[in-house]
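Hello,

I think I submitted the phosphoenolpyruvate job twice by accident. Can you confirm which output corresponds to this input? Input:
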Amino acid sequence: MQPIDKINNDWILQFKKPLIIAGPCSAETQEQVLETASKLSKASIPVFRAGIWKPRTKPGNFEGIGEIGLKWLQKVKEETGMLIATEVANATHVKYAIAYNIDILWIGARSTVNPFSVQEIAESLKDTDKIILIKNPIHPDFDLLKGAIERLIAQGIKNIGVIHRGFSAYKNAPYRNSPNWRMALDFIIRFPNIPILFDPSHICGQRKGISKIAQQALNCALSGLMIETHCSPDKAWSDAKQQITPEKLLEILKCIEFRNKNTRQKLEVLLLQIDEQDHHILSLLSERFKLSTIFGKLKKNYNLPIVQHNRWEQIIDELKPYIKQLDI
Ligand code: PEP
Ligand code: MN
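Support: Only one job matched these inputs. Its output is below.
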């Protein structure tokens, strides 16, 4: 198997920088697909995305339109000349995507997390020269992402890229899926040969903030963006809150700067990491205040003293070695 840092990833060079992939979360109707694509193509977006099979958190939500949507994607290609991209989560999806000449296949975050799924997809794509993008797994496990890439390489797949779409967080997070700038930068440093794109839509989970974080990603030397775009976002059947119109996308792209060689990349990543930690500290403090308020009320009910000296000393004793270990 070719080592992961040796694979040659020239596929990105066929696109103007930064590479922009746009289109709806899901293909819903032929009209919605064609109208969105026609507007994006007029804005010179090179790749149209649309989910055909949707991994939904809860049962009962729209789970994708299925095979008929692939026909609509083919129409997009015929009518606009855009490349077409969709998510695959198993060998059957791959079979259909190949049969309908989909150009770019991506593995979603909920599949990357499962080595069985990645292996099945990789084997069904054996020796393909299509572009295969891998979204990060839902938790920041660098080796799991690397392992997924290695599974593709082992099957002779050459044109590989990664999409940073953030990581699940429990409550109080400012993002739907928090970005991890350190991990993105580590990836660029270790595998400069593998293009890494950024998905501000699934990170923000809402329209607000997309443009700011997209610019931050490009400042950190990521190679492009995948942005969910819908002709009537409020009426979307999935991820309605985070989708933007093609007009809005164009507005964002007009303001975005892309510097080819970013000498300030390290500084940008450090600043973003500091912001990220500030968010964590604030959310932890808020959780702690809530817990101590409940605790204070219980103490009052049980007539316990406000300060319990034993507990105070015990906490300090327990924390001392921990603080030492943190090396502050
Ligand atoms: C998507 O791109 O619509 C999607 C389901 O994304 P993710 O795999 O990042 O959740
Ligand atoms: Mn989506």
